[in-house]
Predict the 3D structure of the following.
Amino acid sequence: MILPIYVYGQPVLRKVAQDITPDYPELKELIQNMYDTLDNSNGVGLAAPQIGKAIRLVVIDLDVLKEDFPEYAGYRKTFINAHVLGFEENPETETLEEGCLSIPGLSENVTRPKKVHVKYMDEDFNEHDEWVEGYAARVMQHEFDHLEGKVYTDRVNALRKNLIGGKLKNIVKGKFRCAYKTKVAR
Ligand code: ZN
């Protein structure tokens, strides 16, 4: 089932999300709905706050990028109780353009470390503790930010932040167009 995507201005996007336990109600259906929603919106990642739930659950689909990144063929992963543990000391960074399903019609350059240390559980609640690099590290940092109540526009430089302020205000008011179902703050 395709769920509406909560848009910038919705308070749930600013909450720190909570860990869940395996008995979380209808978790399997929720995860399936998040994949359906992601597929429908042509995104690469979706965090639970974006569908209105302040829980630490993320789905990422990098299979859609396989033409450019063959190493990601078949990459469709669920991250439960996901946390960023840290970065390297003096990390090498990279600046890339990011967009977000919760901020329709906008994309901005964001600088982030190339490598990230994360922990999470998979759909079977097996624990993983790993260092991730490449495009996956970028997407995981973006999605895991959502679990801390952050969005990528918080990370753009002050000049750009000023320039996009008006657009963000319009998004809050629902003045935007996009091809998928959304839920605007009121
Ligand atoms: Zn996002």
